[in-house]
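Q: Could you fold this chain for me?
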Amino acid sequence: MSVRMKLDFVSDVSCPWCAIGLQALLAALRQLRNDIEADLHFQPFELNPDMGPGGQDIAEHIAQKYGSSAQQFAQSQEMIRARGAELGFRFDMQKRTRIYNTFDAHRLLHWAGLEGKQLELKQALFSAYFTDGADPGDHAVLARLAAQVGLDAQRSREILASERYAADVRTREEFYRGHGINAVPAVIVNDRHLIEGGQPVAVFEQVLRQLADAVPQPA
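A: Sure. Below is the predicted structure, expressed as structure tokens.
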């Protein structure tokens, strides 16, 4: 008998380790499909909430924010690319050259959750940014991705042109920061257990199996 689990995946669209972590989590859930029925939700987290329109050169941004040298940045990029490739996700570092504001992407993801298309939109956003180098803050890009995953393009444009779901996103962001989530990805299982970071498939599988085994079975 499978165990139902609520999984809240707290992440940002512009976070490469979030893209890696999601692919690893999904791979683990496929391995555990006979044992765990996952109820997956994506929760907002902005790495750069004050980023202005047009974004910033990524190498410049990383150097300013983390003090990384050019060599360290290159090594990090290669590590990310390799980890993604292992999981079947392609990072194109030649196209992903800027960091952007992601607040509107989170608003659209909130709506997609209400429409049952959140996972599809999240994956489309990751691919658009990390593989194609698209701006996840661009309303035309967001409307195109919404249509791509089966959401109403006109409705998405109306939402983006308004402040719809802005308060919901900010409330969720404040909730998770208030509960100690200061780095992403973070996976919260059944509102109780925290798995931090873009873990390998085996780690996600081991932890989720342990949590599932700890659930009391009906007599």
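A (continued): The two ends are 12 Å apart (CA to CA).
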